[in-house]
Amino acid sequence: MIRGLIPIMVLLAAALLLPGSAGAFTVRTGDSTGVPAGETINDSLLISGQEITIDGTVRGDVFCAGQNVSITGNVTGDVICAGQHLRISGISAGDVRLAGQSVSISGNVSRNITAFGQTLTLEATTAGETLFAGQSVHLDGTAAREVRGAADSVILSGTVGDLNVTANRLLLSPKAAIRGKLTYVSDRNAEIAPGATVSGAIIRIPPEKSKAVPSGWGQNRRPASWIAGRIMSYLTHLVIGLVLAFFASKHFRNISRAMLARPGRAIGRGLLILLAAPLVVLLLVLTIFGIPVAGLAVLALILAVFISRIAAGMAVGIKISDEYLKHRKLSFIGSTFIGITASWIVFSVPVAGWLLSALAVLWGLGGFYFLVRPKSAA
Questions:
Q1: Which of 128, 164, 195, 362 could form a disulfide with 270 if both were Cys (CB 3.0 to 4.6 A apart)?
Q2: Which residues form the signal peptide (predicted)?
Q3: DSSP secondary structure string, 141-178?
Q4: Which of 211, 235, 266 is the C-terminal boundary of a domain?
């Protein structure tokens, strides 16, 4: 099973490491926000809210995070969104990358689709590749190239190039058409209904139970769930990182530069913060009036740990931009996108990635220490 998932992670890394435009941004926030029909935004759009509706045109990329997201308009760049319920039925000239509880994609997608969620309904017509992970997946659209993914249940009712999946149950309905070969990892044969067509070879690979879940993943977690969880974490940190890079660019740029200038000192200061914080909280709890303050201190520490990895990703992005992408002249938002993406791919590597993630937390906490006491970074 892991052998079948390695190409998925490779495709994922390749897809996520190719950022779209990193120019100007239009930012919109609110409980209910969006782009009404008839309106055209000539920048990339960074949008967040409980209800997001985009019926107009965005001439750039769309980055969004919300509870319910609906995009019926036209987007000339990439669509990168995270939320509870996502419905994309417009036209996208770039890649579409989504993570949510329920995800529905129809309309036309000119490039690739990357979708992760509990329930996925993919009805789009796409000229690129499709990558997915979920629990229940319905493939009802038309994909000119390969469709690859992992899920508990996969039902194909559309037309694809090659199909390469890991699934407990794979069903090809009477309308299913595979123009290339079918390769699947499963402990039982695929259900192929009369009328379904497969032009190429059909290859079933029995799962290797001894290698189904690598050490450290947790024996009760399915690989598809693990992948979906990692992508949800990535998109959550990415959206928050882009918001921070937009609204507090000066502070986080200074933090990142200080972290790069004194990485060892930053990690040391971060370690001291983690060691001292529990003692401070304990001392506060021992006093009557300090209990509420202790609670606030715990919340502040949790928030700092969460944002620390974002700060580390920002620093990595600046380093990559300075060393390898000088000709691109990326904005801080652009380097943040690249840094968080690269960091999360590394953090997803078992064992080594987790150790680097822990170091990133210490590094980022040290960066916040430098923000409070800038002379210590000198």
A1: 362
A2: 1-24
A3: SEESS-EEEEEEEEEE-SEES-EEEEEEEEEE-TT-EE
A4: 211
pLDDT computed for residue 8 by the predictor: 34
19-35 per-residue burial string, b: 16 or more CB within 10 A, e: under 16? bbbbeebeebeeeebbb
- Indicate if 182 and 285 belong to the same structural domain: no
Q: What is the token pair recorded at 22?
A: 């990193």
Q: How far apart are CA 296 and CA 282, in angstroms?
A: 13
Closest CA to 128 of 147, 141, 115: 147
- Quick one: 37 and 142 in the same domain? yes
Same domain for 270 and 361, yes or no, is yes
pLDDT digits (tens, 9 = 90+) for 33-80: 999 999 999 988 888 778 999 999 999 999 887 789 999 999 999 898
Which comes out higher in pLDDT, residue 330 or 9?
Answer: 330
Do 72 and 128 belong together in one domain?
A: yes
Distance CA 78, CA 59 (A): 10
* Enclosing domain of residue 134: 2-211
CA distance 285 to 293: 8
Query: Is residue 128 a contact partner of residue 112, using CB atoms and an 8 Å limit?
Result: yes
Find residue 98's DSSP bridge partners.
Answer: 81, 115
Q: What is the mean pLDDT of the chain?
A: 82
Of residues 90, 130, 92, 88, the one with CA closest to residue 110: 92
Q: Do residue 185 and residue 290 come from a single domain?
A: no
Q: Residue for token digits 């190039």? A: 161
Instruction: Name the helix (H) or strand (E) containing 103.
Output: strand 96-105
Task: With H, G, I as helix, E, B as strand and everything else as coil, classify residue 259.
Answer: helix
What does the alpha-carbon distance between residue 137 and residue 155 come to, in Å, rounded to a whole number? 6
Number of folded domains that form the chain: 2
pLDDT tens digits, 300-350: 888 888 899 999 999 998 998 888 777 766 778 778 888 888 888 788 777
